[in-house]
Amino acid sequence: MSDAVLQVRELVKHYPVRRGLLRRSVAAVKAVDGVSLTLERGRTLGLVGESGSGKSTLARMLVGIEAPTSGQVLVDGEDVSRLSRAGRKQLRRDVQMVFQDPYTSLNPRMSVGEIVGEPFAIHGIDPAGGRRAAVGELLELVGLDPDHASRYPHQFSGGQRQRVGIARALALRPKVLVCDEPVSALDVSVQGQVINLLEDLQDELGLSYLFVAHDLGVVRHIAHDVAVMYLGRLVEQGPETDVYDTAQHPYTQALLSAVPVPDPAVRLAAGPSTGAPTAQPGLLGGIVLEGDPPSPVDPPSGCPFHTRCWLAPTLPEARADGDGRAVPEVCVTDVPALAPRGAAAAHAVACHFARELVATGVEA
Amino acid sequence: MSDAAASAPPAARTAASSPVAEAWRTLRRRPDTVIAAVVLLFFAVMAAFPRLFTSTSPRTCPIREARTAPQGWGGDHPLGTDALGCDVLATLVHGVRPSLLLAVVVVGISLLIGVTLGLLAGYYLGWVDYLVSRAVEVFLVVPLLLAALLVLSLFKGVDLGAGTFNVILLPAVVLILFGWMPYARYVRASTLEAKNLDYVTAARSLGASDVRIMTRHVLPNAIGTVTALLPTSVAGVISAEAVLSFLGIGVRPPATSWGIQIEQGSQWVLGGAPHILLAPLACLVATVLALVVLGDALRDALDPRLAA
User: Fold this and answer.
1) CA of A258 to nearest chain B CA: how many angstroms apart?
2) Most buried of A153, A304, B57, B175, CB within 10 angstroms?
3) CB contact, 8 Å: A154 with chain B?
4) List of E strands, A130-185
5) DSSP structure class, residue A83
6) Does A161 touch chain B (CB under 8 A)?
7) Max mean pLDDT range (A31-35, A49-53, B291-295)
8) Rounded CA separation A26/A67 (Å)
9) CATH code, B37-67+74-302
């Protein structure tokens, strides 16, 4: 490992499902089921996946809001769970969170100055020059007028509120910002401004971002590396260009094919897609997945994606199973490991047939 | 919509002012608030200095002057006399102190108990919530009068003295014991709602302690529903005290209260002497209305979202 600021090893979060009079635990929602990640200093890791794939749970475990069921979170090489209470509080300063909804993430009864200054109060820090001055500097850093510190959140627009949320997260000089869909609640024009602010802050302060999103366009713009989650597991991970240009997992390809292309000329030039089963207007050869994601209480055996995989039935190894879907037996019995299967060593994918996929020449 | 930092939010004032100054400015702009404040001040002065308002003693009750009709200002009995011949105005004036004191003490302490328990139950859930919720249910199902009789028998023969506090001690104990539950339930419900909001999660991710989260983030946003309950609770306490007096554990003679007056006056409404009821009732209604208006204004003034 070169310079990992945040590492996650086999992180698991199961929520027990309790039933009956005695509240016995009868099952578990496997929200995050063994995820390993590495975030390098000064870089941005984009974490994508559909709703319910466990992105937000993972993010919440990283900032300490949720306790992992098992696994390790290492900040600068130190295992968070092995530290004392005080040590954990100290370490928590290094990893801060930017929330999705700027309308609910700011206390409506506190002024912006109080909100941004609260981290100092919680940790008993008195910055040089006093807290007021420090709050003013933070507001300036995120592009707000320091004189607005006495105003209340409702007096700001959505984009300005999100800047306040970023200023609060920056107060303790963290090394890592975990951004949980930080722009999905904002207007498109404002999204760009906030993304640019985050990029400027990264250059200025040397921050590392874990950027959780379902908007692949935004992730492509900001992320250096991309990890794709499905049903609590990582299915593909690698540098942004590799994942976007040569996606190897059928799920990643389906996600990418669903990104709308705003230019009709580009869509026409691309023509009908080659390997994908269905094409939709407005998309570049859209791959439409069938059905809903399976329940995380009882995920499918083997590869969690095999129940919806569009590639599996087309493979020569496919055998019809009980449900009438033809999939290769190995997809049902064996969990594919997340491992490099192509030319690039940094580009890992969890699919038994990633090679065949590359060979068929499907490109999103 | 521009997100530029320099563009001022429309509702914002340029001058930076403290929330207290802001609250005061909003209060002053509403005339009904001023009237309500004057009414409450009037009764407060009456409670502190009853002799400013009447020179007659509420304890001189010549029976032959019973149920005299109101004579207006200048007469011996401006508001008439009651069934025993006691001056209604004098009784009213001297009854302010125990009535208002009882209301403030009972509502204040019940609020404190209820809010604390409701907050703890809603925040921690688990066994804390179990204990608090069961306690609420137990106290809710015991009828007030039965409980009052129990307390009465417990304190039978105990001389509590005659000071203002001693006079209201027994009714206060009973009414607090059986009055804190609504606050606990309301606060528990709104705590459950508030504690999962993003700004509470944000505070937790910053490492804030439970006490800080509860007092700075959850409670200020959960207390709203309870403040609407307060003015009517005051009225409830004052009239409940009358019922307790009937059992002999309310404000005890020779001290008087509005509750006792209302209780006694209600027997003569159709007997040709409605003034015995109407005088204390008018005072009670005026107090409660003033509290409602003031409570509303205070809530609006302290909520930055509603400050114009």
Assistant:
1) 28
2) B175
3) yes
4) 176-180
5) S
6) no
7) A31-35
8) 20
9) 1.10.3720.10
Give the closest residue to A197 by CA, choosing from B2, B3, B203, B10.
B3
pLDDT tens track for A92-117? 789 999 999 988 999 988 999 999 99
Chain-chain contact of B206 with A119 (C-beta, under 8 angstroms): yes
Mean pLDDT for the stretch of residues A194-221:
91
A144, closest residue in chain B (CA to CA) = B5
User: Is A124's Cβ below 8 Å from some Cβ in B?
Assistant: no
Model-level pTM greater than 0.90?
A: no
Please, are residues B99 and B257 in contact by the beta-carbon 8 Å criterion? yes
CB atoms B9 and A160 under 8 Å = yes
Kindly list the residues from chain B whose CB atom is less than 8 angstroms away from the CB atom of residue A172. Answer: 206
Domain spans in chain A, listed from the N-terminal domain onward: 4-223, 246-360
Residues A201 and B232: their CA atoms lie apart, in Å, by 54
- Each domain of chain B, given as residue ranges in start order, spans 37-67+74-302
The Cα of B128 is separated from the nearest Cα of chain A by a number of Å equal to 17
Which chain B residues in 86-105 lie under 8 Å from chain A, judged by CB atoms?
none
Q: Which of A144, A157, A168 has its CB closest to that of B1?
A: A157
Report yes or no: A227 and A251 within 8 Å, Cβ to Cβ: no
The fourth-level CATH superfamily of domain A4-223 is: P-loop containing nucleotide triphosphate hydrolases (3.40.50.300)
What token pair was written down for A111?
A: 């002024």
Contact A54, A293 (CB under 8 A): no
A66: closest chain B residue by CA: B205
Q: How confident is the model at residue A279 (pLDDT cuts 50, 70, 90)?
A: very low
pLDDT band at B307 (very low <50, low <70, confident <90, very high): low
pLDDT of residue A276: 44
Across B98-107, B120-129, B265-274, least confident range? B265-274
